[in-house]
Structures are given as C-alpha cells and as structure tokens.
Specification:
- The protein is mainly alpha-helical.
- The chain has 2 domains: 7-65, no CATH class; 68-120, no CATH class.
- It contains 4 helices and 4 strands.
- The protein has helices at 7-17, 67-80, 91-104, 108-120, and strands at residues 23-26, 41-44, 53-54, 64-65.
- A two-stranded parallel sheet has the order 1-2. The protein has a two-stranded antiparallel ribbon with strand order 3-4.
- Helix 2 (67-80) crosses helix 3 (91-104).
- The radius of gyration is 17 Å and the shape is globular.
- The model has no long low-confidence stretch (mean pLDDT 85).
- It holds the Pfam family DDE_Tnp_IS1595.
Length: 121
C-alpha cells in the first residue's frame, strides 16, 4: 500500500526489489513510463486498445502480458471476500500471508510445515 502512485513513490521500491537490467512487463499505466530510464527493459500491453497479450517473437507464445499478476489479484479478492472488509491497518498482514501461501503453493499440513520453517529460519 502506497500513499500515492507517482513515479517518485514507486521508483525506490522498484530499484530496491527488482534487479537492474530486468525486463518488466506492465500494462499501459503512465506510472511505468520511466522504467527504461531507471535501467530496466520494459514491455507493455495496452488494455485500452483491447490488447491483453502479445506474441512479439512470432513463436505462438504470448510472452508480453500481465495476466499472471491479474490472476493473483483476482485470487486475493476471492480469498478476502468472506472477511467482509479488512482494515487498512491490517491489510498488509493479510497481503503478506496471501503472498506466502501463493508462492509456497502448498495447502493443508504442507502449508503449516512451510510456514513453521519460514518462521524459524
């Protein structure tokens, strides 16, 4: 959660969490316009033009898309829906836990084991 979504706000977060030179895929939102100036490769799809995925190299595989991230947010919304509202104060905790569960790709007892291992590491 950010106080605003301006380039000056996101640049330090991006440079701290994404390796310089990485190729970053986004939608057409203006906030990402300076990624190349900051040392990243950048490819985007333009949802306003009806573009949701693009095959740039002609191999039949649409490598330019943000569908994985959009799917993550869709799953998060479904996961949060039964809670009927989350306080802004607690939201980062819910997001962190959901991210952990999503990234470990484990459920049930296997998730508990992964969680304990992460906590004692």
């Amino acid at each position: 959660m950010l106080p605003n979504v301006q380039q000056a706000t996101i640049q330090p977060i991006i440079t701290k969490t994404i390796s310089s030179g990485s190729l970053v895929y986004t939608d057409e939102y203006d906030i990402y316009a300076r990624l190349e100036d900051w040392g990243y490769g950048h490819k985007s799809v333009c949802h306003a033009w009806g573009e949701y995925a693009r095959d740039d190299d002609g191999d039949g595989f649409c490598e330019v898309h943000v569908n994985t991230m959009k799917g993550f947010w869709s799953l998060l919304r479904s996961w949060l829906r039964p809670h009927r509202g989350i306080s802004q104060e607690k939201l980062p905790i819910y997001l962190g836990f959901f991210q952990f569960v999503h990234n470990t790709r484990r459920r049930g007892k296997a998730l508990l084991g992964a969680l304990i291992a992460a906590l004692v590491a």
